[in-house]
Amino acid sequence: MADPKEVKRLQELAREMREKLLNLCGHYDGVVHIGGDLSMTDLLIGLYHHGMKVDPADIKAPDRDRFLLSKGHGAVCMYIAMSLRGYFNYDEILETYGQMDSAYGMHPCKIQLPGVECSTGSLGQGLAIAVGLAFSARQKRQSHRVFCMMGDGETCEGEVWEAANTAGSYKLGNLIGIVDRNKQLMTSFDGEQMYLEPYADKWRAFNWDVVELDGHDMGQIIDALDSLPPVTHDRPTVLVASTVKGKGVSFMEKNIGWHAGALSQEDMQKAIADVEAAFVRERSAS
Amino acid sequence: MKMTFNFGSFLSARTVMGDTMHELGEKHDHVWALTADTGGALKEFKKDFPDRYIDVGVAEQNLAGIAAGLALEGNIPFIAGMIPFMTMRACEQNRTAICYQDLPVRFIGTGGGLTSGGGSTHNAMEDIAIMKSLVNMTVLSIGDPNMVRDIMLLSMDYPHPLYIRLAQGKKDRMLYEPGAYTYKIGMGITARDGQDATIIAHGEMVFVALEAAKMLAAEGIEARVIDMYSIKPLDEALVLKAVKETRNIVVLEDHLMEGGLASVMADAFADGGVYPKNFRRLGIPQVYAGFGSGEEQRAKYGYDEAATVAAVKKMLA
Fold first, then answer.
1. Of the candidates A182, A193, B27, B97, which lies 20 to 30 Å from B114 by C-alpha distance?
2. By CA distance, what is B95's nearest residue in A?
3. Which of chain B's residues have a Cβ under 8 Å away from the Cβ of A111?
4. CB within 8 A of B212, min separation 6: which ones?
5. At what angle do helices B60-72 and A126-139 cross, to 10 degrees?
6. H or E element: which one contains B82?
C-alpha cells in the first residue's frame, strides 16, 4: 500500500502541475493539447516524482530510467512535470513555449532540449523506439527500465502492435508501457468510430503483463509503479490507466472540443478554480 | 575474404555483407544486425552474437523504430532488407525516428532497380528519390561487391544515417581489385577515362557503362565512365570536371529517371553554373514494369549497353 504521505505529496504536485498547465494555456497565443495533458498529469507526476530513477543533475547517467513520450503532442505536460522535478525552469517554459527558437515546442525535440530522451510527435512511433532502448539495456546488462507513455488513440497505429509483438516475443521485462486510456481520440469517443475494447486483453494477447488502474488515483499509481517486476522478468508490462480527458476542469472533461484549445483569461481563472475545488473535494474524501 | 580478382566475374554482395557484419560484430560490441525476416546472409552473426541480432518478422516500420532506439543508446544498428519495404513502408520512421534525430543507422538494401525479379511490388525504382530527400541521410549505390565491405568498415566512424543500395545482391560483378581505391562518402571513381563523352552510372549499371564504353571504343569513341557510388553527397567536382572536359553526359541508372542520379546531376549543373553541351538520362520511365530479369528489363525500357552506345553516338553525330 502506498504511503499516505507520499500520496499527499504527489497529489499536491499534480494540483500544482494542472495549474501551471492551465496558466500556460491561458498565456500562450495558440492552442495547447490541454485535454490529453490533463489526463496524463497524475501519471507523469507519479513517474517523474516517484517511480522513475532519474536525476536532473545528471541527465546522461547510464543507469537512469528512460522515458519516452510517444504521445508527443503532450510535450508541455512533460516539460512541466520535469520542471517540477528540477530539470527546467517553469517561467522559461511559460515565456518561450512555442516561440521562434524556443527549446520548448509543441512536440519534444531531444536535440533542442537535452533531458528529453527522444524526439517524438508522430503518433505510434514511440513504443518501437522504446523497444530499441530496452534491447540495448538488456544487452549491456544495465539495471534501468524504459518507460513509454502512449495515448490510447495512437494505439490504432499498426506500428504499436508490431512493437508490442516484438517486446513480447523477446521477453523485454525492462520495458514498461503506460497507456493514458482516456477513451477519446481527437475527433471521436472510443466506441463511436473505433472500438478499442477489449483493450487490456489486446496487450495480454501480445504476451504482456497488464496492470489496470485508475490513472487519477495517486495511491493506485504509486502501487503500480512500486510493484513493477524486476528488469529480468520475462514479459514486458503495460499499465492501462483509465483516465478522463480534461481531468479536473468541469468544462473540459469528456468534451470532444478540448483535445486542444486556447483559454481566455476568464476561462483560465475558472479552470484553475475548478482544479482547486476538485483538489479540496478529493482531499476531504480521502 | 581472400579471392582472386577477375574483372566482371561474379560475387554475392549479400555474402560480402554477411561476412562483414560478422567481422564488425566481432570487433565492436555496439554493432547490431537487424532484419525483418530477410536475414539469410546474417546466419553467422546470429550464431555468434545472438543478443545483438534482432529479427522482428515482417515489420519494417517497427524495425526502423527499434534501430532508432538502439542508436540513441550509442549502438550502430545495420538494417538489412529488401529496398521497397525498407525505404517505402518505413519511410516516415526513417525520416522522423532516425533522420530527424540524426542517428547512425545503416540501411543495406537489396533488389535495387528492376533486379528483384519479383515484379512491381518488389521493384525498387523510387528509393533514391525518397532516401535522398531525407535531411541528414547519406545515399550510396554500390555495384562492386567488394566495395560493400570497405564502405561498411568506414561507416563505423560515420555519425549520420547511411543508406546503401545494392542490386539483387546474389550475383554482382567485381569491378575493382580490392584495395585499388580508397572509397569515401562524397566521392566518385573514374572507372575508365575518355574525352569524347562521359557515362555516369551507379550500382550494377557501372558494369553496363563499362561494357558500353568498350563497344564505343571499338568504333573509335573514347567514353569516360564514372562510378558515382555516392549519390548524396555528390562528388560535384568530378561531375563538373567531366562536363568541362567531355561536354557530353549520359546518366545511366536502374531507377526512375525522375528523382534519381540524373536529377541530382541536373541540380549540380544548376548550382555550379556549368552545363553540358548534351545531357541524356537513361533509366526507368514512368511505368510499373512487369516480370523478367534485370537484363531483360533494361533492354525493354532502353537503358542497356546498346541504348547507351546509341545515346552517346547520337550526341556526337
1. B97
2. A122
3. 101-102
4. B199, B223, B252, B305, B308, B309, B312
5. 50
6. strand B76-82
Q: Do B68 and A134 touch (CB under 8 A)?
A: no
Tell me: pLDDT of B290 over 90: no
Locate all alpha helices (DSSP H) within B273-317, ordered by sequence. Answer: 294-301, 305-316
Percent of chain B with pLDDT over 90: 96
Model's pTM, two decimal places?
A: 0.97
pLDDT at B2: 52
Using a CB-CB distance cutoff of 8 angstroms, which residues of chain A are in contact with residue B100?
119
Cα nearest neighbour of A142 on chain B: B73
**pLDDT higher than 90, residue A286:** no
Residue A285: what pLDDT? Answer: 77
Contact B59 A130 (CB under 8 A): no
Complex ipTM, two decimals? Answer: 0.96
Helices (H) and strands (E) in chain A, counts: 9, 5
Q: Using an 8 Å Cβ cutoff, are A103 and A93 in contact?
A: no
Q: Which residues of A touch B104 (CB under 8 A)?
A: none
Q: Give the count of domains, chain A.
A: 1
CB contact under 8 A, A129 and B71: no
Contact A110 B56 (CB under 8 A): no
**What's the domain range around A223?**
4-285
Mean pLDDT across chain A, nearest whole number?
97
Measure in Å the smallest separation between the Cα of B44 and chain A Cα atoms. 18
CATH number of the domain enclosing A274: 3.40.50.970
Q: List the domains of chain B with CATH numbers.
A: 10-173 (3.40.50.970), 189-316 (3.40.50.920)
